[in-house]
């Protein structure tokens, strides 16, 4: 897995960041979603490296082997603004002042926040299986609430989710039914298992959701009110066998009011397209980023 890539733990502004990187050429950082780690990109990252990119795959703050800072009442350490600043800091440590950023699921929120807050650093943006946080919350209806009920469960301040998940994380995350070694790949699955078995990681992943419905929404609202938009070219990708189109219609139209330049298309896949459709995904990324 990740042949010819380097795996390190780096200090980024006092927070440990676990990261794997390889290749040469223009830099692109790949940001995973919940509850994955950077190893979800194991079949995509080498293809991008072969296509002529320097590929950087970190564990997001709180996820996998990365640091898990103590939270506060507003969940500020797990805001996408804080995570985005850490992405920029990581790329500085690795010597990249300007780079493309690709994010899937929760990672898509970090990716677009990086582009909004650091337009001088982000050359291109790819968002996968996501729309801006405030758009998701404002468009929330009964169908979304029924399908994505875990958003509200994860966000409860009394922390029932930690107790439920940590009692049997492998069943909660379907580690031996849907998310099997065969589906994820053996080494990716082993990394996924190590993450979900760690109560500190589970808590930090839930802090991501708590920030999502509070401080992240407020930051989106403030940016929208101020007329801030994503400056760089943007690509929206979505899994056609998932529910993004059913919930929001054409995702490109949702992103259009947030971006100066956006295009997009669906990929025939379930939600975790990096694992289920890696070749088509890598081809789409290479064509856009090249």
Automatic annotation (TrEMBL):
<protein>
    <submittedName>
        <fullName>Haloacetate dehalogenase</fullName>
    </submittedName>
</protein>
<dbReference type="InterPro" id="IPR029058">
    <property type="entry name" value="AB_hydrolase_fold"/>
</dbReference>
<feature type="domain" description="AB hydrolase-1">
    <location>
        <begin position="26"/>
        <end position="178"/>
    </location>
</feature>
<dbReference type="Pfam" id="PF00561">
    <property type="entry name" value="Abhydrolase_1"/>
</dbReference>
<keyword id="KW-0378">Hydrolase</keyword>
<dbReference type="InterPro" id="IPR000073">
    <property type="entry name" value="AB_hydrolase_1"/>
</dbReference>
<dbReference type="InterPro" id="IPR000639">
    <property type="entry name" value="Epox_hydrolase-like"/>
</dbReference>
